[in-house]
Structures are given as structure tokens and as C-alpha cells.
Amino acid sequence: QVQLVESGGGLVQPGGSLRLSCAASGIRFSDNAMTWYRQAPGKQRELVATITSGGSTNYADSVKGRFTISRDNAKNTVYLQMNSLKPEDTAVYYCKTTGIFSRRDYWGQGTQVTVSS
């Protein structure tokens, strides 16, 4: 039973910061790559950042230099530190992982991030 639970979303002003968390259970967390996606109203879901089991990271061009993905294997948690937030960052943010054997994607419920003055 894989479960991903996001938290940390909220309302922030442009230029502000927010840290999202995704707590995972039911997987061998340290072996799994973890990814953050986001989806704005009326728009397609897009990849924001990913981190491999070895700690390598990748970011969408739109967030490079502003967002940082990290993981704490001891806590089975992946984080997304978001700085210099822009209104365009407004979206529901989702945590995702893929089953190593099944190749099934597992998604969290999402957490809302709203950047507005």
C-alpha cells in the first residue's frame, strides 16, 4: 500500500518562499526516485523537479535557480523548497513515484500553492 501525502502549500506573495513536503509510505523509499509535478487550472500537468535515489536532481527550466528538491531518507520524505515565487507558480503540486517492479505511478493528493498579491 503506497501512500504519498503532500503538505506545506498555502498563499504567498510574489517573491516569497514556501517549502513543500511529501511523506511516503509503503515503498522502499531510499531506492525510489521522487518527482514533483504541478498543474494549474486549465493547464496540463508539468514536471517541476525530480531527484533520484542517488541524489541527482533535475528541474524544469521555469524553476531552475529558484526551486530546490531534496530528500531525507531517514524520514521517508521529499521536499521542494520554493523561493522567489511568481504568480505563474500557482498550481496544485503533486508528489509522484514509480514502482520499481510494477512500474505503476503513485501520486499524492496534491497541495495548493497560490502566489498572489
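That was protein one. Protein two is written in the same sequence-then-structure order:
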Amino acid sequence: QVQLVESGGGLVQTGGSLRLSCAASGSIFRFNVMGWYRQAPGKQRDMVATIGSGFDTNYADSVKGRFTISRDNAKNTVYLQMNSLKPEDTAVYYCHYKARLLQESWGQGTQVTVSS
């Protein structure tokens, strides 16, 4: 299976920036979709951004224009650049991997806290 390890979370003030990284290891299929999801206390886990192996991207409306997802296939790493952060962005951010035959993995999560 694919293992995912996130890093880069932390505490930042409103308007600040953070860059999350997710390193994948294991049996990685060439054609896959990776993404970032977030979950705040008492709320469901929602998609933030996804990126395919062909670099096609999708974003939640709430982060469009502020967040950028990217990937480096040579390093098996996906990134999430978060700019103009707001308190509503506070959540645990999870890296996600999805490939063929229902192959799916989740990272352990990294906390992002935006203070007002």
C-alpha cells in the first residue's frame, strides 16, 4: 500500500502563508489523483484541492485564488501552498491518494491553525 506523510502545518496569523507537503512511498501507480482534505472539529472532512497525474487541478470554492496544489512526480510529493489564510481555514489537513482498483490511502493529518 501507499504510505503518506504530511508536514508543514503550524500556527499562523490571518493573512499569512503556509506550505504543506505530502511525501508518498510504497507501490505508487503511475495514474493517480492526489489531494488535500480538511476537517474542523464537529464537521465533516471536505475536499480542499486535488491534482491528477496529468496535473489537472480542482479546488473548493472557498480556497480558489488563495491555495495552489502542485506535485513533483519524481519525488512522489504533493504540495499545498496556502496564502491569505483565514481563521475559517483552521483544521486538520489530510493528504489523500487514489488510484486504480480502489487503491486509496490517507495521511496522518497535520494541524493548521489561523489566529485572528
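The chain is about 0% helix and 55% strand. Keep this in mind for the problem set.
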